[in-house]
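Lab manual, section 2.4: Encoding a predicted structure.

Procedure: take the sequence of the chain (116 residues), apply the prediction step described in section 2.3, and record the output as structure tokens. A sample record is shown.
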Amino acid sequence: QVQLVESGGGLVQPGGSLRLSCVASGSIFSINVMGWYRQAPGKEREMVATISKYGTTNYRDSVKGRFTISRDNAKNTVYLQMNSLKPEDTAVYYCNAIFGLSSSSWGQGTQVTVSS
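Recorded output:
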């Protein structure tokens, strides 16, 4: 199994920046892909960005050029640097890991609120 713990959410003004962190523990050697998802009130959870164990990244169109996903394998940590934040980025952000053949693990979520 893989356990995930997120941190770094908070309240920020439009145009501001935040960095989310997700620390993985457990069977980390079996992780294939890690990613960030978000869910706003009344909406479905959506993919924000993913990064494979080979470093291949993928972003949803609305965050391209503003968000950057990265990983530090020595710290078993994935980051999401979020710049030029907009009110529509407000959501609970969840870390996800795909490991083994097709297992998935989720973190507890961290709230990001973009408001003046």
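Check your result against the sample. The chain is about 0% helix and 60% strand.
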